[in-house]
């Protein structure tokens, strides 16, 4: 029965993979984590953690540490691209915490990664790029690119959009290019106008938009600037652009945007991809988690949160009395599939909504924003533990 300790091999040491490792260790399982990277670094920029993700991080014992290195965002604001006029604002902070079951944090991806590494009882095995997965009724085997192999009772693919484990589970499929890329960067707060009052900030304009928020207690301002670009197809967190290219892409925008983009020292740029939802995530011994299972565009800010929710559900079902390993993996998939699919598809639609030209369509969108808190409560206020309790 899967309530006995399992040997679990996780491919991928990102936020989802480490959250799963911690959750599984808390249930008494033996966990090893493997990653193709040769070293762990603070690559990337900011991520948003909502109440739904923070509920799980609190349960894993890392919520306090995350709060200590993050910024608790006190308001959400939507601004006009040219004038910077606020056309919708709503409090967050205590209001959000009480309604959604946890705070809304802006946190540097590297800081969140370190919080999880500090909690994980072990060290990820680096330089291990998964090349193939094999399984039989007794277990599973990961074959790495260097020819080494490891055995486990369960293999979890948390290896992202271009997951090697996904290929084993679901066969070949193609990443879907959104014909959009994003500039990402971090700017010292003192170089960004109005940074002292900045919460979760959206700048919406014709054909492009920005999402801006503080991290590290307000020390830095994180931005993601989205532009249509069918020719930039490189999907890599390490790819770079020139700050001048970002400034040129937003010529004519308001002073906050131009000042921020002009003062960034290093700009990352990558193309945005997702994949069509999978019909199955799991075999009897292998399953997927996070972007490997349901890669989503960032326009709902839920990628990390959904991977964290996955981690809680996977650990619960692999530890449930009376379920075989195969049954536990199937129950995990069944619980998670509909929710993640809905968020994945919603993320695709949000970009067009955020990038409307001035005029009646944008006015109609702005009017709909008045009901935003109610419209996103099913995402942010979701309690994975309540859902798990109901499935028992």
TrEMBL record:
Gene3D superfamilies xref list: FAD/NAD(P)-binding domain
Highest taxon listed in the record's lineage: Bacteria
FAD-binding domain segment(s): 7-343
Keywords assigned: FAD, Flavoprotein, Monooxygenase, Oxidoreductase
Pfam families: FAD_binding_3
Cofactor(s) this protein requires: FAD
SUPFAM superfamilies per the UniProt record, alphabetical: FAD-linked reductases, C-terminal domain, FAD/NAD(P)-binding domain
GO molecular function (one): monooxygenase activity
Name of the protein in question: FAD-dependent monooxygenase
Source organism of this protein record: Dactylosporangium vinaceum
């Amino acid at each position: 029965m899967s309530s006995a300790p399992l040997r679990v091999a996780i491919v991928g040491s990102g936020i989802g993979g480490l959250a799963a490792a911690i959750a599984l260790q808390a249930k008494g399982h033996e966990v090893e984590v493997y990653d193709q990277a040769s070293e762990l670094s603070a690559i990337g920029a900011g991520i948003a953690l909502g109440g739904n993700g923070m509920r799980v991080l609190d349960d894993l014992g890392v919520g306090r540490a995350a709060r200590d290195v993050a910024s608790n965002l006190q308001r959400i604001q939507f601004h006009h691209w040219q004038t910077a006029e606020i056309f919708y604002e709503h409090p967050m902070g205590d209001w959000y915490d009480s309604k959604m079951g946890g705070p809304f944090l802006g946190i540097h991806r590297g800081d969140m990664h370190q919080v999880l590494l500090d909690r994980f009882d072990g060290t990820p095995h680096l330089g291990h790029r998964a090349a193939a997965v094999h399984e039989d009724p007794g277990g599973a085997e990961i074959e790495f690119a260097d020819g080494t192999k490891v055995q486990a009772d369960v293999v979890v693919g948390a290896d992202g959009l271009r997951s090697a484990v996904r290929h084993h589970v679901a066969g070949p499929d193609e990443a879907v290019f959104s014909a959009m890329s994003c500039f990402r960067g971090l700017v010292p707060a003192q170089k960004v106008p109005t940074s002292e009052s900045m919460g979760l900030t959206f700048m919406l304009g014709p054909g492009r938009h920005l999402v801006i928020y503080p991290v590290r207690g307000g020390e830095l301002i994180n931005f993601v600037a989205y532009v249509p670009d069918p020719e930039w197809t490189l999907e890599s967190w390490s790819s770079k652009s020139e700050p001048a290219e970002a400034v040129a892409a937003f010529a004519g925008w308001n002073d906050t945007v131009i000042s921020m983009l002009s003062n960034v020292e290093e700009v990352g740029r990558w193309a945005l991809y997702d994949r069509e939802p999978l019909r199955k995530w799991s075999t009897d011994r292998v399953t997927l988690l996070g972007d490997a299972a349901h890669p989503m565009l960032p326009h709902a800010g839920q990628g990390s949160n959904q991977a964290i929710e996955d981690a809680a559900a996977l650990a619960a079902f692999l530890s449930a009395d009376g379920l075989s390993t195969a049954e536990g993996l199937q129950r995990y998939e069944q619980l998670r599939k509909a929710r993640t699919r809905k968020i994945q598809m919603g993320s695709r639609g949000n970009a067009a909504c955020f990038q409307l030209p001035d005029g009646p369509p944008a006015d109609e969108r702005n009017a709909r924003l008045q009901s935003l808190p109610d419209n996103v409560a099913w995402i942010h206020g979701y309690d994975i533990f309540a859902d798990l309790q109901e499935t028992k």
